[in-house]
Amino acid sequence: MAKTSKRPWSADEVVAALKAAADQQIATIYMRRNPLATAWGVRFGDMEKILKQIEPSAELAAELWTYPAFEPRHIALSVLPKGSMTEQQVDAWVLDLDFSLMSDEFAKAVYHTPWAKDRLERWVDDERDFVQRTGWALLYGFASDPAESYSDEEWRAWLDRIERTIHDAPNWSRESMNNLPIAIGLRDPGLFDAAVGVAERYGKVSVFHGDKTNCKVNDAVALLHNPKTKLVRY
Predict the structure, then answer these.
(1) Do 57 and 8 share a structural domain?
(2) Burial call 139-161: b when 16+ CB within 10 Å, e when fewer
(3) Which of these, 9, 41, 15, lies nearest to 28 by C-alpha position?
(4) What is the pTM of this model?
(5) How does pLDDT run across 170-181, given as a tens digit for each residue?
(6) Interatomic CA distance for residues 38 and 28, integer angstroms
(7) Residues 137 and 107 sit within 8 Å (Cβ to Cβ)
(8) DSSP 3-state assignment of 1?
(9) Could you tell me how far CA 169 lies from the centroid of its own chain?
(10) Tens digits of per-residue pLDDT, 128-142?
(11) Is residue 49 predicted with pLDDT exceeding 80?
(12) Which domain holds residue 122?
């Protein structure tokens, strides 16, 4: 099968393609996760088909971000060239996040900027759920990077903080925090037992994924012991 060639797209073209693929039933499913958010109802497979045709562009990403809905912002983060996000965008866009997946995608984009570590240390203390989740998602990016320079002592301190605070953290942040012992334990054999111990002690994590969803929280202990578990590299 011939590879789809990419070309520059305008924001109007992207929006038109998304709206042509929209399905209200899918929008309802997406918005079960956050009834206050907006989704047009485009399946991920359809968004992927669109993305395969779009040439990466920081300008297009910025234009698409002005549409306050999940799909155009998903496309925006996907076409954003690595490292092209400005500090102003980092600080402004984080306040627009209203889906858990969007927080994770945003963290991946911020990870490739010079402000990533500074922002994660700010955001994990933020009381706003999606902002805090983004901070923990950023920390996951560093944990999954074997070249990261946090010391073992610092990683143990992060594990201790997660153990002490996970059950009192905001809903979506708890889910992100629960993934960190997996990344920390698998990055270094010397941290494996500490990560397993933390995950065992805090136990089952409760996360409300929205009405009528089948989503489940990862079993951190099981994934740490599963040789097939792979970390997501940003």
Answers:
(1) yes
(2) bbbbbbbeeeebeeeebbebbee
(3) 41
(4) 0.95
(5) 999 999 999 999
(6) 10
(7) yes
(8) coil
(9) 17
(10) 999 999 999 999 999
(11) yes
(12) 116-234
